[in-house]
Amino acid sequence: MSAAVALRRDAKALAQRIAWQDWERVAAALDACGHAILPGLLDQTECRAIAALYDRPDGFRSRVVMARHGFGSGEYRYFAYPLPETVAMLRTAVYPHLSPVANRWNAAMGIDVRYPEAHVDFLQRCHDAGQVRPTPLLLRYDAGDYNCLHQDLYGEHVFPLQMAVLLSEPDDDFEGGEFVLTEQRPRMQSRADVVPLRRGDAVVFAVHHRPVKGTRGTYRVNLRHGVSRVRSGRRHTLGIVFHDAL
Ligand SMILES: O=C(O)CCC(=O)C(=O)O
Ligand SMILES: [Fe+2]
């Protein structure tokens, strides 16, 4: 089989894996707790291939050493356009399954912004506002590294959900390094969730806030995400943010 044919077959398999996710369950989990797992989104070969890009000299627009900015310990690189095919496909093919949730959430929170059905149209909105820099990123953590709780806001235009795909195998490639989400409800202390991921699983989660129904109507809770300390080994993640950056 030629490389081109193999790539086309891979792209089709990935498109199918995205289409076959239980998107109703995902929407229900997002509504109930602000995050949802997409099991087995990438296969082992795809995970290895994407993680291996980290050491390539080209294909990225910048590299961030987290300790220099107080973001944690470890580093990440933002992809340059054009994105690798798998990354581009994940971003454009997952988006239409999430935009209805995003629109519903904004309506519930009394926010006027609505999101178009196609990612290309949302990107155009970002680009028209000067948010032209691609935000998908590869992260790399070694023993002792961690990612402080944060929100990935890169300008006025924000798509309220994002996704992270674990590219390394817990207990095998690394120990520790759990994906953590915290929720701050008004006038209450923060609550943490640890999301159990295997290699190839993705977690979809709220970027900054989400609606929660209370006895006196709907209120907003504020979310942050991060990664607990990696105890040993090396952990790679692929981060997919749907808005571009200023
Ligand atoms: O490494 C992780 O699991 C989290 C990465 C992250 O902060 C992101 O994708 O926005
Ligand atoms: Fe992040």
TrEMBL record:
This is Proline hydroxylase. It comes from the Bacteria. PROSITE patterns: FE2OG_OXY (PS51471). Belongs to the iron/ascorbate-dependent oxidoreductase family. One of its GO terms (molecular function) is metal ion binding. Pfam families: Oxygenase-NA (PF09859). InterPro entries: DUF2086, Oxoglu/Fe-dep_dioxygenase_dom. Keywords: Iron, Metal-binding, Oxidoreductase. Residues 132-245 form the Fe2OG dioxygenase domain. The keyword Chaperone does not apply. Gene3D superfamilies: q2cbj1_9rhob like domain (2.60.120.620).
